[in-house]
Amino acid sequence: MGYALWLVPSQPEYGALQRLMNFRPQPYSSKTYSSRSYPYFDPHITLATFSSPPSLPLAELLPLIEATPVYFESIKVGSSYLGSLSVVVSKSRELLDLRDYIVGHLKKVHKIRATSRSFPHMSLFYLDETVRGERLRLGDILRSSGRVVERRSVTGIALNCTLDGAAPEFHAMTGFVGSEVWLVDCAGAVEDWRVLEKRKLVRRDPRIPISEPFFYGHNPMVTMAPNHPGLGGWAPPAPYIQRDEPFFYRTIPVIPTTPYHSQDPR
């Protein structure tokens, strides 16, 4: 696979998702499954992959980027090893803009041709299906045990991480805040993947409308959107999301990000 840039959750959300991903169906024995099944790995969304290692450190490779919210949409059982069982992520404009900006920046500034297949998704488990139907059965177990909740009245799913030891506030995660970008060497088996560098993303000012871009371009001195009132401009009132809160059901509804719709070519 070469090298990859991952979008990784904030630390509390990372820990909660990691507990869910450590779940194993019972009775479980490493002798029951292929040695490639159920490897341990970090929760992430792959933003881009490329074949050669970058010559610059991550801080110079990427511009200043803001933390980006991620929303879970559905569970997908795939036919390939790396697509075994994953969470399909909502194609919000913010997330797609972030991916497009990074891929474009790598190509334009650093001459790195990056790709992002099956974007966006977050893998939960990798299974080398030695017995036909193992992946489907795992998906059924996650639903029947209450670890995956498919909500009927609203769009999206929720993950219950408390059944595997996460804090009570993670009983129904509907997404997370992408708070770091990791550079990862994905050569070899999954458990051999190595994190080479980590870069924390900028915390977004909650007063800035969610319609503003989720990155600040090439100028690291810019800390607010150009039309923010703090810079002397005027910004119309708009809904916003508090970026540092974990994503779970609340009594107060959270305003979702704007869905992405491609333009009609006609």
UniProtKB/TrEMBL annotation:
What's an example of a GO molecular-function annotation for this chain? 2',3'-cyclic-nucleotide 3'-phosphodiesterase activity
Give the record's GO biological process terms. cyclic nucleotide metabolic process
InterPro entries per record: Cyclic-nucl_3Pdiesterase (IPR012386), Cyclic_Pdiesterase (IPR009097)
Q: Known Pfam families for this protein? A: CPDase
Q: Which domain of life is it from?
A: Eukaryota
Q: What is this protein called?
A: LigT-like protein
